[in-house]
């Protein structure tokens, strides 16, 4: 392989190849309504469908850390999601060096004062770490994780088999859409349960009645450790502020920040 081609293989490209349906012997069919349907391809996959599903579970896990070669500077930058495009929401400075916002990276769909978001998310996470029930929820075995992953995989395989059969049977797009609307949320919920069942020793170490003291000790819990804990426990979405402001000059409040627990 020529040197100039080989150097184009960065981590993003490797991830795209690993997550591609083609690698598992699948192809994507787009129907007349723009719906994406995954069906079996004519070629043999490099990996099995089961391996493909496990890779998707691991590589798309929101708790996985990513690195661009430098340490993170802000608590939630890149961990937040935009309500509109589901893209990452990152730290930006606006109207002077002292005012920092979290802004949708893709399209600037939303923006929220970082101080407000940081304070709310930090308090929610600290209360969760202080909750005695959390340690019980974290006391899972490898068998629990395997069982949850198996359930999610079986639902996904059954779902994609039905789509293949539906296309072969020439079902209408409307019938397929009804099935997808009913089954997709069940699969997504099962996949979230599987992700939550994976071991989280970093969260267990930070939990307990002294969680606040540990959190505010930079040696025990540096910024990257805080980000890993947040990534493991919650999914935070910045919502639209439309219709929720309380008067001229009043900024968006905590009701424009949605925090979904990932560990029940």
**H/E element order:** HHEEHEEEEHHHHHHHEE
Counted beta strands: 8
End-to-end Cα distance, whole Å, is 49 Å
Alpha-beta content class: alpha+beta
Strand content: 5-15%
Overall pLDDT confidence? 77
Number of helices: 10
Largest beta sheet: strand ordering = 6-5-4-3-7-8
The helix content is: 40-55%
| Regions with little confidence, pLDDT below 50 for 5+ residues | 1-10, 245-250
Characterize the biggest β-sheet.
6 strands, mixed
Please state the CA-atom Rg, rounded to the nearest Å.
21 Å
Q: What coarse outline follows from CA principal-axis ratios?
A: globular
Structure description:
With 264 residues, this protein is α+β, with helices and mostly antiparallel strands. The chain has helices at residues 3-6, 11-19, 49-59, 114-130, 132-138, 142-168, 173-197, 201-206, 211-215, 223-233; strands at 26-30, 36-40, 80-82, 88-93, 100-104, 111-113, 234-238, 257-261. It has a six-stranded mixed beta sheet with strand order 6-5-4-3-7-8.
Write the layout of secondary structure elements.
Blueprint: H1 3-6, H2 11-19, E1 26-30, E2 36-40, H3 49-59, E3 80-82, E4 88-93, E5 100-104, E6 111-113, H4 114-130, H5 132-138, H6 142-168, H7 173-197, H8 201-206, H9 211-215, H10 223-233, E7 234-238, E8 257-261
């Amino acid at each position: 392989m020529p040197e100039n081609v080989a150097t184009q293989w960065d981590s993003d490209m490797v991830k795209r190849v690993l997550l591609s349906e083609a690698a598992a012997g699948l192809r994507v069919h787009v129907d007349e309504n723009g719906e994406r349907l995954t069906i079996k391809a004519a070629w043999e996959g490099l990996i099995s469908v089961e391996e493909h599903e496990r890779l998707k579970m691991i590589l798309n896990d929101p708790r996985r850390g990513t690195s661009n070669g430098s340490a993170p500077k802000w608590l939630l930058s890149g961990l937040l999601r935009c309500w509109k495009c589901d893209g990452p929401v990152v730290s930006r400075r606006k109207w002077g060096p002292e005012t920092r916002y979290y802004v949708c990276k893709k399209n600037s769909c939303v923006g929220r004062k970082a101080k407000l978001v940081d304070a709310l998310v930090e308090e929610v996470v600290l209360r969760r770490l202080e909750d005695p029930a959390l340690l019980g929820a974290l006391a899972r075995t490898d068998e629990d994780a395997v069982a949850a992953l198996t359930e999610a995989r079986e639902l996904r395989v059954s779902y994609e088999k039905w789509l293949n059969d539906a296309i072969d049977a020439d079902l209408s797009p409307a019938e397929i859409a009804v099935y997808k609307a009913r089954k997709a949320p069940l699969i997504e919920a099962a996949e979230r349960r599987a992700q939550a069942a994976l071991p989280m020793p970093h969260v267990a170490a930070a939990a307990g009645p002294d969680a606040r003291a540990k959190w505010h000790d930079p040696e025990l819990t540096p910024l990257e450790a805080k980000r890993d804990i947040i990534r493991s426990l919650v999914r935070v979405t910045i919502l639209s502020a439309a219709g929720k402001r309380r008067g001229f000059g009043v900024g968006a409040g905590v009701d424009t920040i949605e925090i979904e627990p990932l560990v029940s």
